[in-house]
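Let's practice the habit of predicting before peeking. Look at the sequence and jot down your guess about where helices and strands might fall. Then scroll down.
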Amino acid sequence: MTRPAFVVAGKRSAVVPRGGAFKAIEVDELAAPVIERCLSSAGIIPDLIDEVIVGNGLYAGGNPARRVALLAGIPESVSATTLDRQCCSGLDALAHAARLIATGEAECVLAGGVESFSRSPLRLKRPLHTGEAPEPYDRPPFSPWPERDPDMAEAAANLAKAWRISTERQIDWTCDSHRKALRAQEAGTLAGEIVPLNDTTEDAYTRKLSAAVCRRSKRLAGDEETGVLAATTAVEADAAAFVIVVSERLAGKISADHAVRVLGITTSGGDPSLPGLAPIGATRRLFERCGIGAAHIVVAEVMEAYAAQAIACVDALELDPEIVNRGGGALARGHPIGASGAVLAVRLFEELRREDEDAKGLATIAAAGGLATSVLLARV
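Done guessing? Here is the structure:
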């Protein structure tokens, strides 16, 4: 028998491109203020936390979750776990939290993600022989087969070509993402979820973007017809985002205006050479398990690491583009790897709180290696 799980709070920092306002802030310093505000918004004291789960993709060990938890004032007796499934990690943290609640192992779990491209360590491979210099590398392999482990931009370009998603359509999607984000900023829609940090209260990359400017940006991969541009790619960024997941018993003690139920979770794998398509299978399985379809979704947060992959997922899942990323997506914010899924979770939580009872929302994200996580939430 499983128990229902509820998200009762969600907060995030602004998302800031690498080398920006957060460039000197370590991950624990980035996360702690967000966690403290998240707890206070739900009226939950640190002593109630049973577990801390933090997604992080760039720190290569060291369990940054423990540093994050201690700096945020979580009791030393509370365990802390770091998840690394690359881009999925922040949403995976929510998924693991919900499972702990469902099995009765926890009543209250702090879950989210934090990433700093600005402070991430440089990567070097040890030399094989004495006297040789270490070999620098940008990323680890995500597949055992080099021919099925393309650079992410190349993978997005291959996806765009296979699905006939033109560069012009990618540009239109990107400009629309920025338009949505600007509209949300101007309306104050995002203000309540963002915790001010280093005098930064808004996502720094969001701008009034034109198709002409996009066309002048560098082509990163692919051909003239369907190629991926720098403008249609989410920039590397720094951010933290967290949610609090609790049992029904604890949720009953918190205002109903602050509760969103976790209806379902699916993680799955797909073709490692086309990782951007993995959310399609994961979401279809999730819909089947929950007995719903795209028509039941009133708001969706779909990761925009590349415009091409977001378009492919929205098309294949038959989601209404108007309900997707209503406050803008990663193309208008940036992509803080291990925190990106958690940012989606916070955005979905906030959007659902404005909807009617039982309104359903989807968050889905792909990761290198052909992995995906999809989560279905419903307004209580």
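How did you do? Residues 5-119+235-379 form a domain with the Peroxisomal Thiolase; Chain A, domain 1 fold (CATH 3.40.47.10).
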